[in-house]
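Problem 3 from the worked examples.
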Amino acid sequence: MRFDEAYSGKVFIMSRPNIEEADAVIYGMPMDWTVSFRPGSRFGPNRIREVSIGLEEYSPYLDKHLEEVNYADAGDIPLPFGNPQRSLDMIEAYLDELLEKGKFPLGLGGEHLVSWPIIQAMYRKYPDIALIHIDAHTDLREEYEGEPLSHSTPIRKACELIGPENVYSFGIRSGMREEFQYAKESGMHLSKFEVIEPLKKVLPQLAGRNVYVTIDIDVLDPAYAPGTGTAEAGGISSKELLEAIHAISASELNVIGADLVEVAPAYDHSEKTAIAASKFVREMLLGWVK
């Protein structure tokens, strides 16, 4: 998929037709090749686009309208089914193109492993990068059942690449004992259960830094987001995640890109997960794209 190739199907609401002229580019990563429980997140990106038609273009939270942001939806990267390494290579190559063109990348997953090649590309362009990770799961395993390419490993890989002291995880409520021990001993910043208060405490420390944000929809309680592969009870509400997005918007961070992953429409019978995800994407566009 070339940088300037537009998707011929559904696009996110109010997407501009010209990718070359856009400031931000939405792109999909339809991959769920390594999931350990329920597959189906490869259908997430397109469903988020489809339900976005029900959004208002205006955000009363930010007093901004989508017409104020110049963004294009490039569609899904055509990832080869069942081939994790080739898929990751394609995502990384596409991100290299976006960054070379000076675009703000906003990715839609797909399983959480898709964030790993994005972080690699980001790190090459921004060696001082910090990572904000909002999720139910630690994702700090080195491997899963002997396989290092797993949706349970991207944050561990990120720690080893950019330094654990530059990784900030919020909302975590599930993981192996060894993962929590690694977080404690490595110097990374891991906040269990909550997002808002620990995030607001950290944001001043990150002022002026280049920050990438990755959000796993399963940080929400299953009552708010049942449509995900590995739902985890005890999560935050949609309102709290909106507040977190807005806190980042109001901060002095330089957000250089973001992704939203793990929406799985097959388990989302009321579509509340996809509807919430599309609203989060709207707020990210309005609050984070400069």
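Problem 4, a separate protein:
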Amino acid sequence: MKYILLSGGSGKRLWPLSNDTRSKQFLKVLRNDEGQLESMVERVWRQLKNADIDQSAYVATGKVQREILQSQIGEQVPLIIEPERRDTFPAIALAAVYLYSVESVSLEECVAILPVDPYVEDPFFEHIKKLEHVLRESKADLALMGVKPTFPSEKYGYIVPEPSPDSSESFMRVANFQEKPTQSKAEELIAQSALWNCGIFAFKLDFLITLLIKKGLPIQYEELARQYGKMDKISFDYEVVEKTKNIAMLSYDGVWKDLGTWNTLTEEMSTPIIGTGIMTDASQNTHLVNELNIPITVLDVPDVVVAASPDGILVASKESTPKIKDIIKSIEQPPMYEERVWGKYRVLDCVLGENDHKAVTRRLCILAGKHHSYQVHRMHDEVLTVLSGMGEMILDERLQPIQAGDVIRIPAGTRHSIRALTDLELIEIQNGTGAFEENTVELCTTWTEIVRLCI
């Protein structure tokens, strides 16, 4: 069976730590067995390895999340890149077409779709393996996995099974779905053996490829990617699951949580303070997450979340944190912090001038052994000051060493790349017009290719 992890959402509900490139699954606020901080995606990928299914897994994601995924779970993890965000049905369709036309996966192969950010224990992923057996035994078009509810939640969707005359079967047939019912309705559903819908389903590849043909959509990856922007923005649940009649369901009785808001995420944080800060004892059930280089002090304030990052500062009661997505709609700014394959950067200052001119100051950390692509900026200049560390730099095919104290000027049109020999800390000042990222052209990416140009 092949496994597709969906990682394409934008970061709104865990603002200000999450943004358009660093969604909730990339926040390092959980601790692993060694006591080290890890993100949700790092935790899930580790669990896939424990279940010995990582070699059959792919991650479907957008272009803006490619580098942070590679920095957190490795550059060798196979990614299926969406040209733009179009919701889960287009994303899954693109992934299925990739398996079929690029990977030459058999139409008889089973494919499981998984969210990238559930909070579960290792047995959850062992249980997912059973979906293939359920598909083949039931001869269903889709096989879902639902979680046995522990309380009548109003926040989750429910899968309602058909009454089964044969209790010996390892699966149930699906009757219908109920989305976020009232508490009283949820109690009724639980009495009918309904399960929480955890967003996991499986199908034979032939099922989805046949569906795409019926819809007149391409089944060659490059062509579907080219037409991707024309596809409707619609979820897989609405477009496929709720229109399919022959569905089987596998029940899971174990730990499962959706850590989608601050109040649920903080329930699984092993420490009340991450980053620099002080809290008094009277600040019970309060959590502080601080990514800034200044201390934050919380005095006698219980039941709140305080979160600070270069993107903003949040102070909210825990019960109010689900409102964040709607409240911050009016905030329009590019991400002020990003993780890349080579390291990370933080925007320190941005000055907007006349005639679309701007000056952006960033602090960069390039990790030892990592490097930027060989690139050229068409419409802006850069000045770099090396704060610490040692490295080497190529400027227009000339290789030179760099170290703490060096100041390097990079006029627009200059080809350049930096490689860190030790961790490199730099201040970068960009001056110019237009969108800096869009005006940057990558010439080549591997250091071997880059050095070859200097010979």
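Solution to problem 4. Residues 88-101 form the longest helix (14 residues). The CA atoms of residues 52 and 278 lie 42 Å apart.
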